[in-house]
Write a structure and sequence with these properties.
Order of helices and strands: EEHHHEHEHHHHHHHHHHHHHHHHHHHH
Distance between the termini: 47 Å
Largest sheet: 2 strands, antiparallel
Strand content: under 5%
Number of strands: 4
Helix content: over 70%
């Protein structure tokens, strides 16, 4: 067979995978996206769709010899053991392919929030916010929107969405505004990726690109904050208009709303004051620990997933004799989907599909020299956003960072920011673009609202397009 070398342009990365093989696996990825888009028509859960493609992908990867096998096992060597005793741990390829940190984070955070909600704490917070809004849906949207951005910046997108989504459901049900649930939750889901742009450590692509470019924490914040501020306001305003979340206009409406919220009792859901205050303290500790995981001794090596699991275990002790009811309430379809999706993406990496994308994006970057600096910068932002919406933005960011490093791109070059904005904002184009948007869709489903792949894309495109246009203009006009 004639072999075609796929090389990541100027990055010195080569792999002897036939181009035809790469195109076959590219078609497989497109098939997954198409099936997810037709999820409602084929009457299948996301976990089943992704699971089937993961199994087919693994089988095809074995047929095409894309993995290195030893006795049909993929070997992972642990350096300390390997150097001292020569030990290795053998695992099937699909085990290390899964990002267990993300799976554990979603599992732990969901479990923690579910148990904490039993204390009445979230009802208390939600009613306090609802009272502060005086029953005005538009004010409430602003409260929750800003909270989502702040939480996404200091915690992580998934945890922020789980917490804010839980509070939103309580508030809207109390106000009798369940018809606005879709608008609130979708806007919050999209805002998680805006908040993820605020600091250098708010998302993994930020860390990868920031480190590669040599951008300091302070510089990153100063340059990204203006965009986050404008994009947050624009997203909330657009969402309020598209979903009909209006403010109370007449004095009569305001008076009726105030009378309604004045009758709310924030202590209504509290069955045990002791458990309420215990949950309050633990929630504060959870937020502080998640926010400082990267600098805490010992904990920083274990990661945020350990923190989520640890606090979930602390709360489970309260219901130690009936923990099974919380396990049954877990969204196993969501966890199964993520696990399968990680396997599919891993197969795509070995099939050089992401490298093929990288080659294409490298040519886009070269437009800066052929046409003008703005052409390539804007094109790379839009292109990286498009590809991030259907593939993992972490390897894509790493690949683009290597390309820019190989070209000795200055840390002040706007191309770095094009990758940062594109990788993060691409998550708002599809429900599989980021973990937080998928969590938002799951919460929407839990509230009895149908949200298939195609409907999400249809609703999200105006927001994503607006955000990407704003980001492109911001990079070209203010970061040149």
């Amino acid at each position: 067979m004639n072999r075609v070398l796929l090389a990541t342009a100027n990055a010195g990365v080569e792999n002897a995978v036939p181009l035809g093989t790469t195109l076959v696996f590219s078609a497989l990825l497109l098939g997954l996206i198409l099936c997810l888009a037709l999820e409602e028509k084929i009457h299948a859960k996301k976990s089943i769709i992704a699971g089937v493609f993961a199994l087919v992908g693994l089988f095809m990867a074995n047929v095409f010899h894309l993995y290195e096998y030893v006795d049909h096992k993929f070997l992972i060597k642990l350096p300390p053991l390997d150097s001292a005793l020569g030990h290795t741990i053998a695992l099937p390829v699909y085990i290390p392919a899964i990002d267990w940190g993300v799976i554990a984070l979603i599992f732990g955070a969901s479990l923690f929030i579910d148990i904490t909600s039993k204390s009445g704490l979230f009802t208390w917070i939600a009613i306090k916010l609802t009272k502060a809004s005086k029953g005005d849906p538009r004010k409430l949207l602003w409260f929750y929107g800003l909270m989502t951005v702040v939480f996404s910046a200091v915690l992580n997108n998934v945890t922020a969405m789980i917490i804010v989504g839980s509070l939103t459901g309580v508030s809207l049900k109390k106000l009798g505004r369940v018809n606005m649930m879709l608008g609130f939750l979708l806007i919050e889901g999209l805002l998680t990726n805006i908040g993820g742009l605020l600091t250098l450590i708010s998302s993994v692509p930020n860390i990868i690109v920031g480190n590669a470019a040599g951008i300091s924490f302070a510089t990153f914040f100063v340059k990204s904050a203006p965009f986050v501020f404008v994009a947050t306001i624009a997203t909330i305003m657009l969402g309020a208009k598209l979903f009909g979340i209006t403010k109370l206009h007449t004095a009569k409406e305001r008076k009726e709303a105030e009378l309604l919220v004045s009758g709310f009792d924030e202590n209504d859901g509290i069955e045990s004051n002791g458990f309420f205050w215990f949950s309050t303290v633990v929630l504060i500790l959870f937020i502080v620990t998640i926010a400082t995981t990267s600098i805490l001794p010992v904990v920083q090596d274990l990661g945020m997933s350990f923190v989520a699991l640890f606090f979930a275990a602390v709360m489970l002790v309260r219901y130690k004799s009936s923990v099974d009811k919380f396990y049954r309430a877990m969204d196993w379809d969501l966890l199964g989907f993520f696990a399968a999706l990680f396997v599919v993406i891993n197969v795509m990496e070995h099939a050089m599909v992401l490298d093929l994308i990288g080659v294409g994006l490298a040519k886009v970057i070269s437009l800066n020299e052929l046409i003008g600096h703005g052409a390539g910068t804007g094109a790379i932002l839009v292109s990286s956003a498009a590809f991030s919406s259907v593939t993992d933005n972490i390897p894509l960011s790493a690949m683009l960072a290597k390309i820019l490093q190989a070209q000795v791109t200055a840390s002040t070059d706007p191309l770095w920011w094009s990758v940062v904005f594109g990788a993060n904002l691409g998550g708002n184009l599809t429900p599989i673009g980021s973990a937080s948007t998928l969590v938002a869709v799951t919460i929407i489903h839990k509230n009895g609202i149908a949200m298939p792949f195609a409907r999400f894309v249809k609703l999200a495109i105006p927001f994503a397009a607006m955000q990407i246009v704003l980001a492109t203009a911001y990079v070209l006009l203010f970061l040149q």
